[in-house]
From TrEMBL:
<keyword id="KW-0547">Nucleotide-binding</keyword>
<keyword id="KW-0662">Pyridine nucleotide biosynthesis</keyword>
<keyword id="KW-0067">ATP-binding</keyword>
<comment type="pathway">
    <text>Cofactor biosynthesis; NAD(+) biosynthesis; deamido-NAD(+) from nicotinate D-ribonucleotide: step 1/1.</text>
</comment>
<comment type="similarity">
    <text>Belongs to the NadD family.</text>
</comment>
<dbReference type="GO" id="GO:0004515">
    <property type="term" value="F:nicotinate-nucleotide adenylyltransferase activity"/>
</dbReference>
<keyword id="KW-0520">NAD</keyword>
<keyword id="KW-0808">Transferase</keyword>
<feature type="domain" description="Cytidyltransferase-like">
    <location>
        <begin position="16"/>
        <end position="195"/>
    </location>
</feature>
<dbReference type="InterPro" id="IPR014729">
    <property type="entry name" value="Rossmann-like_a/b/a_fold"/>
</dbReference>
<protein>
    <recommendedName>
        <fullName>Probable nicotinate-nucleotide adenylyltransferase</fullName>
        <ecNumber>2.7.7.18</ecNumber>
    </recommendedName>
</protein>
<comment type="function">
    <text>Catalyzes the reversible adenylation of nicotinate mononucleotide (NaMN) to nicotinic acid adenine dinucleotide (NaAD).</text>
</comment>
<keyword id="KW-0548">Nucleotidyltransferase</keyword>
<dbReference type="Pfam" id="PF01467">
    <property type="entry name" value="CTP_transf_like"/>
</dbReference>
<dbReference type="InterPro" id="IPR004821">
    <property type="entry name" value="Cyt_trans-like"/>
</dbReference>
<dbReference type="InterPro" id="IPR005248">
    <property type="entry name" value="NadD/NMNAT"/>
</dbReference>
Length: 206
């Protein structure tokens, strides 16, 4: 295994929460705890992105975002990691392909908020992701309508697992996805950035 990469044993289930985490907040921690509990995951890795390919502006420096993320989510089953920077990947499909090759026997689950479901069909090779990796999706304030009409949700409607059977998701044959409705937290990184101090003094990290 390359240095700095997280550890996982064959047979384990690992949820992957990719994000800019610019900065991390309690909303991320909340969906992570829900993912561990309701999907019964062994671990969740936070993949702190070198930069969302669909966003025009680069995020705060990686080290700063990682430090904040670790402060927000200090949990024995959660690893905050810069694997995409280490692997040199930015697109999720590429990251998943690398991780599946590097960790044979580990069952990865892609985790995301409902806002990302709404635009999932714009992601590179999104179809490949749906075909090869179970996907867990979390309700998010103000995204219900967009998520319901999402192209990915429509095209893969018959592969949706009822929330009552969420624990089956990690080992389910793909395609498989599950939408979790739960108490929602109205928190976002953009709202935190808009309030002020987080980006002061940064240079663009890209
Ligand atoms: N409050 C929340 N409820 C549900 N999902 C969330 C919440 N906050 C973030 N997420 C999800 O966590 C992942 C990483 O989020 P990200 O780092 O982009 O934070 P963000 O708050 O969405 O940022 P921004 O406001 O800059 O778009 C995404 O899949 C996003 O949908
Ligand atoms: O692969 C893609 O085309 C793609 C397009 C948009 C977003 N993503 C990933 O989705 C995750 C959430 O992104 P963000 O910026 O909303 O935090 C993060 O891991 C991004 O790399 C991936």
């Amino acid at each position: 295994m390359r240095s700095g990469m997280p550890v996982a044993e064959p047979g384990q289930t690992v949820g992957l929460l990719g994000g800019s985490f610019d900065p991390a907040h309690e909303g991320h921690a909340h969906i992570t705890r829900e993912a561990l509990k309701r999907f019964g995951l062994d671990r969740v890795w936070w993949l702190v992105s070198p930069g969302n390919p669909l966003k025009a502006h680069g995020p705060a420096p990686m080290a700063k975002r990682i430090a904040r993320a670790r402060a927000v989510m200090d949990h024995p089953k959660v690893v905050v990691t810069d694997v995409e920077a280490r692997l040199g990947t930015r697109y999720t499909a590429e990251t998943l392909q690398h991780l599946m090759a590097l960790y044979p026997g580990v069952r990865f689950v892609w985790l995301m908020g409902a806002d990302n479901l709404a635009q999932f069909h714009l992601w590179k090779d999104w179809d490949w992701i749906m075909q090869n990796v179970p996907v867990g999706i979390f309700a998010r304030p103000d995204t219900r309508l967009a998520a319901r009409g999402a192209r990915a949700a429509e095209e893969y409607a018959r592969y949706r697992l009822p929330a009552e059977t969420a624990r089956l998701l990690p080992r389910r044959m793909t395609p498989a996805w599950c939408f979790l409705d739960m108490p929602m937290l109205r928190l976002s990184s953009s709202a935190i950035r808009a309030r002020g101090d987080w980006r002061k003094g940064d240079t663009d990290s890209r």
